[in-house]
Design goal:
Bound molecules: tryptophan
Strand content: 5-15%
Helix content: 40-55%
CATH class of the largest domain: Alpha Beta
Number of strands: 5
Strand order of the largest sheet: 1-2-3
Largest sheet: 3 strands, parallel
Radius of gyration: 24 Å
Length: 366
């Protein structure tokens, strides 16, 4: 039996610049996976069509953010020589696959998808859910299966999408023929990276809450945001014992700091555990912790920002990279679509048997 290829597909909706939550939750990992050399193919998709499912009235927002997301990808180290970066809407085959998969999914099953449920509530869609939005898990299954992805590295909020994709694959293969591949989800390895809270302590970083630190933020912007972060509201005086759990400053440190950072910027402490112990006991001020966090984050984000500035100098070249990636993605998706259609026996003009059979039926009656 031929060895199964290891194929990655993942992506992001282009509704804003990417922030440090995307970075620790997925981008950093993607670059590591890319550079591990363990994968046969890597596809990174800018999901503009999916973004339009809840931004139908604002295509300009999506259009503007495609380049932002591409710049964020490249500046984090995604390399077009190793990863195929492409734009979802440019691959018409994905829409066609979605249309056939729709017959394999019930409305009741879509209604149970917890991520879609949460998003419907968040967007006040209850009374008027766009059909396209409601069915985006099916389109996401098309994204994944078109490339026969075996691994989908995403955040835990995407778990229901991968589960739904696996169900569609099983149903398709059982109903028609073994064409599609069941993907596995790859969650962030570090617990603190599952989801970074906003700088205001709210559970999610979101543009509308204005609580994000962006990869493209300047040094000064990052510093202002960190020094203004929400911490333990009961930690009023330095002597007061402080709460570490759920404190966003410590959650960020969990995600970003390493023991080397202590030696370099805060040598009174060996590691994060010691710093946390002191904070919990009392006697450690927020400003000191925030200054340390700022030093750590500046060190991590400076090279990304520098690379971004370089890429920003040649924007037409970025579109060129996306065009080449989209051409490559289309070739792959088109092969899968051909296989899907022949499994469903809707490839009439290539089906010599069908034509012969129909011809015979009519010669015998005439
Ligand atoms: N739903 C993903 C998000 O909101 C984006 C996405 C679209 C995606 N299609 C995908 C992710 C396929 C992984 C695989 O971020």
């Amino acid at each position: 039996m031929e060895k199964k290829e290891k194929i990655i597909l993942t992506g992001d909706r282009p509704t804003g610049r990417l922030h440090i939550g995307h970075y620790v939750g997925s981008l950093k990992r993607r670059v590591e996976l890319q550079n591990s050399g363990e994968f046969d193919k890597i596809f990174i998709m800018i999901a503009d069509a999916q973004a339009l499912t809840d931004n139908a009235d604002n295509p300009e927002k999506v259009r503007q953010n495609i380049i932002e997301v591409a710049l964020d990808y490249l500046s984090c180290g995604l390399d077009p020589a190793k990863s195929t970066m492409f734009i979802q809407s440019q691959i018409a085959e994905l829409t066609e696959l979605s249309f056939y998969y729709m017959n394999l999914v019930t409305v009741a099953r879509l209604q149970r998808n917890p991520t879609v449920k949460a998003e419907i509530q968040m967007r006040d869609f209850e009374a008027s859910i766009p059909v396209g939005f409601f069915t985006y898990p099916i389109s996401q299954a098309a994204d994944i299966t078109a490339f026969k992805a075996t691994i989908v590295p995403v955040g835990e909020d995407q778990m229901p999408m991968i589960e739904q994709t696996r169900e569609i694959v099983r149903k398709f293969n059982a109903t028609y023929d073994e064409v599609l591949v069941e993907p596995d989800i790859l969650l962030p390895s570090n617990k603190s990276c599952l989801r970074l809270p906003g700088t205001d302590g709210k559970a999610k970083m979101s543009k509308s809450l204005n609580n994000c630190i962006y990869l493209s933020d300047s040094e000064a912007e990052i510093k202002t945001k960190i020094m203004g972060m929400y911490t333990d509201p009961n930690h009023l005086k330095v002597e007061d014992p402080g709460q570490v759990d759920g404190n966003p400053v410590f959650i960020y440190l969990d995600a970003f700091s390493r023991p080397e950072h202590f030696a370099k910027y805060l040598p009174d402490y060996e590691n994060l555990d010691e710093l946390k112990t002191h904070y919990s006991r009392g006697g450690l001020g927020d400003v000191k912790v925030k200054k340390f966090l700022n030093a750590v984050m500046q060190e991590e984000l400076a090279p990304i920002r520098t690379r971004r500035k370089e890429f920003e100098k040649d924007i037409p070249e970025i579109y060129n990279i996306l065009k080449k990636g989209s051409d490559e993605a289309r070739r792959v998706a088109s092969n899968t679509l051909d296989e899907v259609k022949s499994a469903m026996k809707i490839n009439y003009f290539e089906d010599v048997e069908l034509i012969k059979e129909q011809a015979q039926k009519y010669t015998s009656t005439n």
